[in-house]
Specification:
Layout: E1 2-4, E2 13-19, H1 26-37, E3 45-49, E4 54-58, E5 91-92, E6 103-107, E7 110-115, E8 118-121, E9 127-130, E10 144-147, E11 161-167, H2 170-173, E12 192-197, E13 209-211, H3 217-227, E14 250-252
Antiparallel strand pairs: 1-2, 1-12, 2-11, 3-4, 3-12, 4-10, 5-6, 6-7, 7-8, 9-10, 9-11, 13-14
Length: 255
């Protein structure tokens, strides 16, 4: 749970991020849990807002000490190999091929792609990834970003995806764009302060969320409706939809 500094009108800004479940990206996810427990992000900032691309946050000084026992994750972990006896259901989003993979679909509420080497999460709007330097660096998890534009699927299998924003994305997507290279803020006063980032189990009264089961007939009907709009406004249904144009509905669970 990310708490940004209040906006110009004094309104609180909270961003809730759901981390990827096992078996995906667990080395980085473990690091992120350790970083949050160590309060690493307290006093850091939003440092980059690139239009139609990403919002990025972390330690702008790059001098803050990282907590101990962070693991170094290999690039092979960008992809999760098919595992024997798998019990997941890979629901195809529609009948069309994927431009970036052999297949695409949803599993337990997450958008995934599939190839010979296995499965991997995809860069849809609101997905959260790990900033890194040049390969073989894969990032520790201390520098994170979220997608705020057209899905940059070319990043799939090149950067670790570790979760998604499920509430408060408007506090990030509406920020002023950076004027420096790649959308970085050029002046310290432009950066948006991060008051804290905590694990959900460290905060009281965190809402419970639920998603529309991607293995359900309701989701199949919803995906079909996204691919074939039949309301009076539309003259010609598209007949298909990119996986990132079928966002999985997530909402607060009623008390």
């Amino acid at each position: 749970v990310m708490e940004l500094a209040a906006d110009a009108k004094g309104k609180a800004r909270r961003v809730v991020i759901q981390l990827m479940p096992a078996p995906f990206s667990q080395g980085w996810v473990g690091n992120i849990r350790k970083l949050a427990a160590a309060k690493f992000w307290d006093g850091t900032s939003i440092n980059r807002v690139q239009d139609n691309y990403v919002v990025q946050w972390g330690d702008a000084t790059e001098k803050k000490a990282l907590p101990e026992r962070l693991v170094i994750v290999d690039a092979k972990d960008y992809v999760t190999p098919d595992w024997p006896g798998k019990d997941w259901i890979f629901a195809q989003a529609d009948g069309r091929p994927d431009a970036y993979a052999a297949a695409h679909g949803f599993n337990n509420g997450w958008p995934l792609a599939q190839g010979r080497e296995g499965l991997w999460p995809v860069h849809c709007y609101g997905m959260v990834g790990v900033g890194r330097g040049m390969s073989p660096d894969t990032g520790s998890g201390a520098e994170l970003y979220t997608v705020i534009g057209h899905a940059p699927r070319h990043l799939d299998r090149n950067i670790a995806l570790v979760g998604r924003v499920i509430e408060g994305i408007e506090h990030l997507s509406s920020l002023p764009r950076g004027t420096g290279p790649l959308g970085f803020y050029e002046k310290e006063e432009e950066r948006v302060p991060i008051n804290s980032i905590r694990r959900g189990d460290e905060i009281t009264n965190v809402p419970v969320f639920e998603y529309l089961s991607t293995e359900s007939t309701s989701f199949a009907a919803y995906a079909d409706a996204r691919a074939n709009r039949r309301d009076p406004f539309f003259i010609k249904p598209a007949g298909g939809a990119d996986i990132c144009n079928i966002p999985v509905p997530v909402r607060r669970k009623a008390p």
